[in-house]
Design goal:
- The chain is mostly beta strands.
- 8% of the residues lie in helices and 38% in strands.
- It is extended, with a radius of gyration of 23 Å.
Length: 208
C-alpha cells in the first residue's frame, strides 16, 4: 500500500468553469474537511498501517464515542485510510484541503442516489420486447431467464428488476480543477455519486 491521502466532505453541487481558452468544464463542488486524525494504526500495534479521520459535528456523543475520540472534537463521521506513512501523523492533527492541488487525480466514494424498485429497462438499459406480432404486455419485460434441463436453475446475479441505487459507489481518476483553501472547497471535473449534501470520501487516485 503506497502513501495515500484523503479527506471527508460533502457534495455542494455541480456547476461549470471556463478554461483560459474558453473551454467549458463541468465540475462538482465539494466541501472537504477540516478533518481530524482520531486514530493512528501501525504494524506494531494493529498489524497494518492506517489513519482514521473524523469529519462533521455531532452535538451529543455516547460514552464509547467520547472515550474513543478523547480530546478530539465531537465528529459525526469516521473513516479509515490505509497508507504507508501512518507514523508521520499524530492524533488530533488537522488535515485540510491543501493536501490536494490542481491537476491531481482523485477517487471519490459516496452513496449513489436511491431510485427505488426499477425494471430492467431503466436499471440495465434493456431494450424490451417486440412492439408487434401479438405482444401486448411484454414491451419492457426481460424475456426468458431460464435454461433447459442443464443447469435447470437461474444463476445468481442475473440482471433483473430490483432495487436500484443507494449503494456505495466510487468514481476513479477525476481531475482536481480548482482548490480554495480558505473555504475548504475543491472543484473536480465530472460528476460524483450521491445527492447534494451527501457524504463523500476523496482520496488520491490509486490507479493513476
Amino acid at each position: 500500500m503506497a502513501k495515500r491521502k484523503g479527506l471527508l466532505g460533502k457534495k455542494i453541487g455541480m456547476t461549470r468553469l471556463f478554461t483560459e481558452t474558453g473551454e467549458v468544464q463541468p465540475v462538482t463542488i465539494i466541501q472537504l474537511g477540516p478533518c481530524y486524525v482520531t486514530q493512528v494504526k501501525t504494524v506494531a500495534t494493529d498489524g497494518y498501517n492506517a489513519i482514521q479521520i473524523g469529519y462533521g459535528h455531532k452535538p451529543r456523543l455516547n460514552k464509547p464515542e467520547a472515550g474513543h475520540l478523547g480530546s478530539n472534537p465531537p465528529v459525526r463521521y469516521l473513516r479509515e485510510i490505509r497508507t504507508d506513512d501512518a507514523a508521520e501523523y499524530q492524533v488530533g492533527q488537522v488535515i485540510d484541503v491543501s493536501v490536494f492541488k490542481p491537476g491531481d487525480l482523485v477517487d471519490v466514494t459516496g452513496t449513489s442516489k436511491g431510485k427505488g424498485f426499477a425494471g430492467a429497462v431503466k436499471r440495465y438499459g434493456f431494450r424490451g420486447g417486440p412492439k408487434t406480432h401479438g405482444q401486448s404486455d411484454r414491451h419492457r419485460a426481460v424475456g426468458s431467464i431460464g435454461s433447459t434441463t442443464t443447469p435447470g436453475r437461474v444463476f445468481k446475479g442475473l440482471r433483473a428488476p430490483g432495487h436500484m441505487g443507494n449503494r456505495r459507489t466510487t468514481v476513479l481518476n477525476l481531475e482536481v480543477v480548482k482548490v480554495d483553501v480558505e473555504r475548504n472547497v475543491i472543484a473536480v471535473r465530472g460528476a460524483v455519486p450521491g445527492p447534494t449534501g451527501g457524504l463523500l470520501l476523496v482520496r488520491n487516485a490509486i490507479k493513476s
